[in-house]
Amino acid sequence: MTKFENIQMVDLVNQHKKIQKDLDKIILDICHGSDFINGDEVKSLSDELSKYLSGGVISIPCGNGTDALQIALMALDLNRGDEVIVPSFSYAATAEVIILLGLNPVFVDVDSLSFNLDINKIEKAITNKTKVIIPVHLFGQGVDMEMLNCIAKKYNLYIIEDNAQSFGSTFTFSNGEIKKLGTIGDIGCTSFFPTKNLGCMGDGGAIFTCNTTLAEKIKMIANHGQKVKYYHEVLGCNSRLDTIQAGILRIKLNQLDNFITKRNKAALYYDEALKSVTDVQVPIRSSNTSHSYHQYTIKVPSQSRKELQSFLKDKGIPTMIYYPIPLHFQNAYMKYLKNDSNLNISEFLSTEVLSLPMHTELTEEIQCYIVNHIIDFFKKD
Q1: Each residue of 19-44: b (16+ CB within 10 Å) or e?
Q2: Is 80 exceeded by the pLDDT of residue 257?
């Protein structure tokens, strides 16, 4: 079997080559105009994001995805000690901003198949201090937002969608209505980190809401708490998306649906090629949400994962573990774990998950090489 050189988890080099002319032009135009902060490209991106998401969504670009989560929480006028429900199987930023604002994260377990927040375990975690639920739409597909909305309405809770990994995916309600993820809760947040499905060439993020009052407050918070320069109405922070990054994102937003189509094609290839490997569980596709495959994450027996990863590495195949330690086991967050919490699924998943290369530039030849080595590994057992 011919060994492929330089297989990437995410191949941005070749993705950018295909749109290089447009990228070069927009970057040079911004440099020539020296309009680097809050330039016209930022305003245009905001409008184009809103148009893409539709439904009257207001889009507020910001410095990064973590800032987006923090600003969203700041906009809700929460009090120190208020509780925010989050999944334990997630990236640290989701819990990090909660604690930085003097709030308390309440960790809830996830579903073993979708990797997303287990809706059936949320109500048990709700107390009189609970104010917000943050569902994380993990790896490219959404939490059951219809059921989550019912719970939030029942207990008068806010929903902040962490949509950093699933921008462009949709949720279909039981009445047939379709909405983009990140536009269903009170506030949606995303990241434009370079490896995201819609990524810039540095840090970037955005916040979304259909609530005009919240939108105005979010805009002020992201701009030092001011609506008019030097007049600070609320406590804010400095979180601005660079004009150059906005220009890059405008180019790539035009390609996003095409990018997602390519990711789905690659995912289908993996699904078909790996379905006969009994030791590999391919990711499921939830019936009420589309999948944009930010990651293609399989599950393998925990006792085999380290050896499989090493075997693939020797063949030039990179893999990643998202996430090796659930949040409630992290030193920074352990003290927030409630004694009666049952987070077994998050703990098991952290020993079983393995993400394979997934990006817009994958070829069937590369995928065939990857899959054949996975098959060979489990055959030798």
Answers
A1: eeebbeebbeebeeeebeeebebbee
A2: yes
